[in-house]
Design brief:
Order of helices and strands: HEEHEEEEEEEEEEE
Number of domains: 1
Helix content: 10-25%
Largest sheet: 10 strands, antiparallel
Radius of gyration: 17 Å
Number of strands: 13
Length: about 240
């Protein structure tokens, strides 16, 4: 397998841990830039800021072909409202970490690293601007391979308080541009759909973030696949952050 290797200096990781203090009150202005061309600016609360720091670190620890950097500056302001029942909104989804799946047709389990960055240009759900959704299965397991895809449509559902007090959801459609290995080969050149559940920072959440994936899917996104459904899995290492525009 052609393994995608991401080199990221340890000193940069330490910088993220020490140079991004969480604002004690108000909001923080952040800029997230990634090596796929992603460039997102937003105003976030302290929990979201900490979640972004952890996501960037997880991309280093569990590489899947995407790296990001985060800068910040304190602000004062009010957070935006939440979506009404059933309404999908625009914003961004960023995440990194790894998942555990059962081996197909044989006993055992295998790890999958993931990295995702997707955002809409407006506050409405729909077309995305740039971004990446990658899955990498490290060698030496019952299966192996890598999948590269480009987000095309994002919808965010925020039915209540932001995580960790509540849970927010993101539904993403992505076009698969490249695969290696037999496991991901059936998806090459097609669409995949993913549903993500953000339950907050690992230190505060009562249940882990979750993700569900399936083939196909069209834009606009709907409330599927269900990250609380039977085919979903928890994000055991790392996590995701969802933010409304």
């Amino acid at each position: 397998m052609r393994q995608i290797v991401v080199t990221f200096a340890a000193v940069v990781l330490l910088t993220f841990a020490t140079a991004l203090p969480v604002a004690s009150f108000g909001l923080t202005g952040v800029r997230l830039t990634c090596d796929d061309g992603t460039d997102i600016t937003a105003e976030v609360d302290a929990d979201t800021l900490q979640g972004l720091v952890q996501v960037v670190q997880a991309m280093v620890l569990y590489p899947a072909g995407l790296t990001c950097a985060l800068t910040q500056s304190p602000l004062l302001g009010a957070l935006g409202g939440v979506a009404s029942a059933g309404e999908l909104r625009g914003g961004f989804l960023v995440g990194g970490g790894r998942l555990l799946y059962p081996c197909p047709n044989t006993p055992g389990e295998f790890w999958v690293n993931f990295a995702v960055s997707a955002h809409t240009e407006t506050a409405a759900a729909g077309d995305t601007k740039g971004g990446t959704l990658n899955f990498t299965i490290p060698d030496g397991q019952c299966v192996s391979g890598h999948l590269t895809s480009k987000p095309v449509c994002l919808g965010i559902y925020a039915p209540g308080s932001p995580p960790p007090d509540g849970a927010w959801y993101a539904y993403l459609r992505s076009f698969v541009t490249q695969t290696t290995g037999d496991h991901f080969a059936p998806y090459n050149g097609g669409m995949i759909s993913t549903g993500w559940k953000d339950t907050g920072n690992p230190g505060k959440q009562t249940t882990p973030d979750r993700v569900s994936a399936s083939g196909g899917g069209q834009c606009p996104a709907d409330h599927s696949p269900d990250p609380d459904g039977s085919s979903s899995v928890p994000i055991l290492n790392g996590g995701i952050t969802i933010h409304l525009k």
